[in-house]
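Forwarding these from the shared drive since the link keeps breaking.
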Amino acid sequence: MKMKMKRKINIIFPVLLCCMSFVWVSCNKEDIDDSKHVSITQPNITFLASVNGLGDNGYNDNAIGGVLSFIDKYDTRFHLLLPSTKAEAELLYRTWLNDNALKDSSLIILGSSDYEDIACKYPTSFMGKGTQVLLFECRNSNTPLNVHSLCINRYGCSYLAGAMSTDRDAKIWAATSEDSIIKTAIRGFMDGYNLHNKDQNTLSVKYLTNKDEGFAVPDSVYKEMKKEYDDDYFVSEDIIFPLLGFSGLGMIRYANENTFFAPWIIGMDINQKGLSINIPFSMVIKIGDMLREVLEDWRKGKKWEKVILKGMADNAIDIEFTPDFYENIILGDPADYEELYKIYHKEALEKDGYEKTK
């Protein structure tokens, strides 16, 4: 039975192309007949988006923005694949491997850590120059030949956010209990919060599910917020650290519908300063910028590390503030978060650097 593809979009940006070179990638001669090698000069990038991920006004949109800015700069053929299920994503990936095994300068970006098992399942012996697979948010260095990962270390910045949040009870809302990236962020926030919690405020963790579907259920988050806060949203002076992906919009929707909602919400992935008056600062993950840098290295033929790990020192992640937060708040007496940032930033930077070496 053929599986129906949701969408496949081909985009070509004709821009003056400078002379480009790519690294030779080793291959298994027994698997590939080099007489069928297809030499091409125009780079070919395919982005396999996370299931229902685009349109999140966050991490996924930022990532695709980084790719689009790169292909707008160079003469690059682009394919955007939008699977509706993980099984469909796997079929699309297998098709790409078959179609590009003999081609030069082809790259597929697997835009979700949930695709790690798919990336590890299939051999990737390419005959062409510069043909690679780039997986998001995976620290596994035992992936197949030609499979690399771009990973943003969240520990240090989460530690910083936790240290800055100790003036209130803190609640971590996580989309899933099984994602390794979320586990790192939770550990960082908890370490920073617990070490600097002089007022003995409380810290708790709430998981939506043990599956990755928790990243795409904003309506479920909205309902959970109603259960949590409908009776006392105007007196619960919490600060919420939401690791929810697209689902986080359900939390913001609830806050905006309740004028006297007292808890603060830490913005996530992008600077969410304009989405709610309850956001004092955001933990911004600059995946688009980092992806552009990696693509520039690929274009120049630079050899990638197996795991390309970026962190605070690389300007891949940081805290950004809501400028008019203090003027717009209705309830509560917030701390001076910018001053707390200055106090704890160096410490968090050192923690982040140590975590990258583990």
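-- next protein --
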Amino acid sequence: MTKQNTGRRGGFWKGLGLFFVGMLVLTAVLCALLWQALKKYEAGTPAAAMRRYLVQVQQQEYDQLYEASGFTPTEFTGKEEYIAYLKHLYDGQNLSQAIFNQRTGGADGRRLYAVMANGSPIADLDVWQETENGPWQVRTHLDLDGWYEVLAPEDTDVWVNGVLLAPEEADTTLAPAYAGLPETVSGPQMTLYRVTGVLGEPDVTAESENVRCAVEQSDPEEGEDAPLGVYTVLLKPDEKTAKTYKSLAQQAAETYATFISQDTDRSVMLAQLIYGSEFHKRVASYNNIWYAEHTSHEFEDMEITELLCYGESAFTCHVSFTYKVSRSGGREYEYPSQYDMAFLKTGGRWKLADLVTE
């Protein structure tokens, strides 16, 4: 009896051990299958797809990213500009630690995610599936809905991202400094371009025959249909012409300053202005009798800058100087002065179209 019982007990423990071993093996197999399933599931999530996208960015696989984006080039934005835009967004960012926050605003069944680096958004990503249960596709979200304003003097060639703009497709407008001219006098015209389909900041360049060009960027006014940015082409006169313009500006600035101080007659001042202009009206009605009596006047530190021309018949400039007057008893008074001046050649003579004091 004792031997039989002992044998039965040994078989029981052996069977129990085999059972536990089998369960352990089965559990390990199930865990491995679950792990693979979870990895497969995770690899098929939007987060994993976005992470893979950022790895491609880090590895600078820009050609592949461009081809996979499905981007349709515009007149001003092609592959080169697309890649430059990606570099502008991502270069220097710590993408390995980036996180993704889903946003509202996705269109055409796409999800929109913000890429956050160091707590700040650096870009948006479009995420979508071509087919149900298909792999997630990712590309950088592009905003091409806005427009840029480019303002250039007539007869000036302007390029945006290397593309020559067509003036016949643009509007024309009076140069801002000449807004006060009467309707009977034609002021210099500017060509106003409305440029769309630009990704990122546009590269604006210009050329004009025999005149140096510069492009100035400024912030637009706020509004519902306001441009993303304003670019103004500036024409700078050659050295000889600049010398002539400076002489005209200095003479006109001194005439106006001495008119204010009652050292130049009103008729002399009016003769240098365009009749009927807003500035002519202001000078004609200006009351300068308040100016204190003095014995002498002089100009110091005369400086003429920001010379810009609009063809051969118009130019603007900035004039700064110190106007010193001496009163009886030897007392001297200094008046720092700054003028923005606009000139126009009409009837063969240069006239002062407007003057704004600062």
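The chain is about 30% helix and 35% strand. The two ends are 121 Å apart (CA to CA).

- D.
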